[in-house]
Every structure is written in C-alpha cells, then in structure tokens.
C-alpha cells in the first residue's frame, strides 16, 4: 500500500499508541495487575449514582430520549449546552465570554488535533514552518504525535526548585524561554499531566503577556483543572482573556467514555474549530453534553467538584504519598509537589537503570506505572533527569495503591543497593 505523507506520519511508530497498547495488553494478560498507569479517572460511586439518575430521567422522557439518540447535534455543539456553559463561566468564573466563544468537540484530544494542525506546521503563505511551544516540559504525552508532519513542537527545560526534604517543583525558566516568529502558540496543561504541577498565577500571567506581545495564543489545557473538574489542591485566580484558548473536557469529571471536549476562545477561532470538527466528525456525540447540561441546569456542578471529587482525590493523593514515603525511606527520591490532577511524579535521582527499564521490571512484578521519559517529548537535550522519573496514578483502591507502593519500594531499593 502506498501511503500519503499524512498516512505515513500517523501510522508510524508513536509513543502514545505504543503506551496505550502496552497498557491494554498488560491489563488483558494479567487483570490482577496493580494499575497505577493510564489517565482514567477513578470510579467515584456518588458521581455515578447521579449519572444513573440523570439517565433514568432521560429514558422516561421520549422527547429527551429522541434528542439524545436520534438527532445530530448542531456544528458548534448543542445550543442548550453552550448556553449553560457560557452562563456558568460568566457567573462562577467572571469570564467575559458568550455563546460565540464556545465550541464542542468529541473529546479534548480531538480539540488538540484540530488546534495543533490549524496553527503549527507549514504556514498558509508557505513562508515558515511553525511550532507549538511548551514552556515547561515534561508535558502531556498525548500532544506528541498529533502533528500531521514532523517538527511541530519545541519545549523548554524547567528549573527545579527543591522544597523540603523530599519534594520539588518545576518552574518556568523565563530567562531561557525563546519566542521567535516561528512560534505559533504557547501551550500548557494546568494542572500538568504528568507532574501534578500548577503553573503559578504569576507564571501564567507572564506567559499571557509574552503571548500577547508576540500576537500568538496562549493555550491552557484545563482537563484536570478549573472550572471543572477542579482537581486542584490550592487556590488560583485565573481570568480568561481574548488571546487565550482554553481546552476543557468532561473526562476527568468522570465521563471519559462520553468523549466531550470544550474549546473557549475568540469567536474567529471558534468558527474555524467548528468547521474542521464538522469536516472530521460531522457532529459531536450527544451523551456528554446532555448529562452536563442537566447537571449545570440543576446547579450541581460546583458541588460535584468541591464536595465529591476534590476530597476524594485529595485523600487518594495522601494514601499514595504516605505509602511512597514509607517504602522509599532512605533512598534519594523526590516527589513533585502534588498541586492537582491525580498523579504523583516520582523522581529517582541517579537511578542506576533507565525509567523505561524500571517500567518493564515493575510490569513483571505485577505493577503498571507510566515511564516518565516520553513526557519529555519536546526536549532534545541529553539530560539524565529525563530517564529518572515515573508517573503514578492514584485512582485505584487504597489496597492497590499500598501494595503497588510496596513493590515499587522493593524494586527500587534493590536497584540502588546493587550500585
Ligand atoms: N489533556 C490532558 C492533559 C490529558 O491528560 C488528557 C487525557 O488524559 C487529554 C487532554 C485528553 O482527554 P479527553 O480527550 O478524554 O478529553
């Protein structure tokens, strides 16, 4: 089969496809695996009970049921969903946005596919090849293979701030952040997958000013953050601005299978996103929008975030944190200060083997984690740190978390002791 350049690009070896396949295989072969990999949200029973009530409401109302399964959504997204969203953003976030600032997509992953390929790559006037700039690597691995040609991303190495005996935090190194006319957009996930870092308000304001000065958008991936699901363990004060593009998702609220993404941006950009999305998907799925419209209309979203999800994930975070501290005592480990999302980012200083090899060894011992190295995808430097980190999800039961931490502790201790 002769492939196009696009076909070649998207079917060649890809970090995210390999990782997802590896996770899928590992789970199917051994369902008892202690699973701290993947980005699936936890099963939060209280939330799923609410979903089942909403589904019963819909099932008992023939008109609502027909709207759910028998009608294509409008290209921009369901009108009532968009109205509820813009109202929520105005009321709860004080953002100056209207319906025309919002577009719905089939998951935020596909929103990124649209944005990356609409802004980066060869410019329409063919004068330049443009990049997405990630000012703070490591970043979400799912961006890394989305460009339809090579060389779409540049990333900046972080500064490492040590905090207390076993914590650290990545900071943006503004002195070494180079923005030239080849940068199409600046992009951050906040809180960050994989590290759980919250780029500070001050850092975000500086990025916003830089983006404005260079007349490019600042893209903020809010998959785990405000305004929902709000898995953020400290306050932040964010205001949307005209040159910001927010990408939101219903996935981490507990609805990953509904595949619902939301883009909030200037109306010119929204209209273009809608056109590409319609070409790619014709229309969005109705389930996520319908459920969320009802949760918004019933005034439930704030309390889902603050009273159901936040305490749930905060407690899980503490379980994994305590277990790791117990099991890794005396070893040269650091944990990224956990400020949001549902991962701990473990740095094993001077690890005698690569994190990729450690990932394989742990898999053999029945523990699935994420190797940290692919999250540095936009950093070319040979930097030992890239091979020393693991991402651990804390979405599983306490028993799974504690057993996994024990095995990680044993394996890592054995490695350091052989040095
Ligand atoms: N952005 C980040 C930071 C993520 O972690 C994920 C998924 O894990 C996504 C975007 C994509 O999420 P979805 O397509 O389910 O909305």
From TrEMBL:
Family matches, as Pfam families: Aminotran_1_2
Keywords: Aminotransferase, Pyridoxal phosphate, Pyruvate, Transferase
Cofactor requirements of the protein: pyridoxal 5'-phosphate
Record Gene3D superfamilies: Type I PLP-dependent aspartate aminotransferase-like (Major domain)
A GO term, aspect molecular function: valine-pyruvate transaminase activity
InterPro entries: Aminotransferase_I/II_large (IPR004839), Class-I_PLP-dep_aminotransf (IPR050859), PyrdxlP-dep_Trfase (IPR015424), PyrdxlP-dep_Trfase_major (IPR015421)
Boundaries of every Aminotransferase class I/classII large domain copy: 63-407
GO biological process: alpha-amino acid metabolic process
SUPFAM superfamilies in alphabetical order: PLP-dependent transferases (SSF53383)
Record's GO cellular component terms: cytosol
NCBIfam families in UniProt: PRK09440.1-2, PRK09440.1-5
Name of the protein in question: Valine--pyruvate transaminase
Source species: Saccharobesus litoralis
């Amino acid at each position: 089969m002769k492939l196009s350049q696009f076909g070649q690009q998207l079917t060649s070896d890809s970090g995210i496809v390999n990782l997802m396949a590896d996770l899928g295989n590992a789970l199917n072969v051994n369902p008892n695996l202690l699973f701290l990999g993947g980005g699936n949200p936890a099963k939060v029973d209280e939330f799923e009970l609410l979903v089942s009530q909403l589904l019963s409401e819909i099932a008992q109302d023939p008109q609502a049921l027909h709207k759910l399964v028998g009608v294509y959504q409008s290209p921009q997204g369901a009108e009532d969903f968009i109205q509820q969203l813009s109202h929520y953003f105005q009321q709860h976030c004080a953002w100056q946005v209207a319906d025309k600032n919002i577009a719905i997509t089939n998951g935020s992953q596909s929103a990124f596919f649209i944005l990356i390929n609409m802004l980066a790559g060869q410019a329409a006037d063919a004068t330049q090849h443009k990049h997405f700039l990630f000012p703070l690597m490591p970043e979400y691995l799912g961006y890394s293979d989305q460009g339809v040609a090579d060389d779409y991303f540049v990333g900046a190495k972080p500064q490492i701030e040590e905090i207390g005996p076993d914590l650290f935090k990545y900071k943006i190194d503004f002195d070494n952040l180079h923005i030239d006319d080849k940068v199409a957009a600046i992009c951050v996930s906040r809180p960050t997958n994989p590290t759980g870092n919250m780029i500070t308000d001050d850092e975000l304001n500086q990025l916003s000013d830089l983006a404005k000065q260079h007349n490019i958008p600042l893209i903020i991936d809010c998959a785990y953050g405000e305004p929902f699901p709000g898995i953020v363990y400290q306050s932040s004060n964010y205001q949307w601005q005209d040159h910001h593009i927010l990408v939101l998702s219903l996935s981490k609220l507990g609805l990953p299978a509904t595949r619902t993404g939301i883009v909030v941006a200037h109306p010119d950009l929204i209209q273009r996103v809608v056109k590409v999305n319609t070409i790619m998907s014709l229309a969005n799925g109705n389930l996520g929008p319908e459920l969320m419209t009802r949760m918004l209309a019933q005034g439930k979203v704030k309390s889902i975030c603050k009273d159901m999800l936040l305490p749930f994930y905060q407690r899980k975070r503490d379980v994994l944190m305590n277990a790791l501290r117990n099991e890794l005592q005396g070893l040269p480990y650091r944990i990224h200060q956990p400020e949001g999302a549902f991962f701990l980012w473990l740095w094993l200083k001077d690890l005698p083997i690569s994190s990729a090899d450690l990932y394989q060894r742990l898999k053999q011992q029945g523990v699935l984690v994420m190797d940290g190295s692919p999250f540095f995808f936009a950093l070319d430097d040979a930097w030992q740190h890239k091979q020393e980190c693991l991402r651990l999800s804390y979405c599983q039961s306490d028993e799974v978390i504690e057993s996994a931490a024990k095995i990680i502790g044993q394996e890592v201790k054995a490695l350091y002791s052989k040095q």
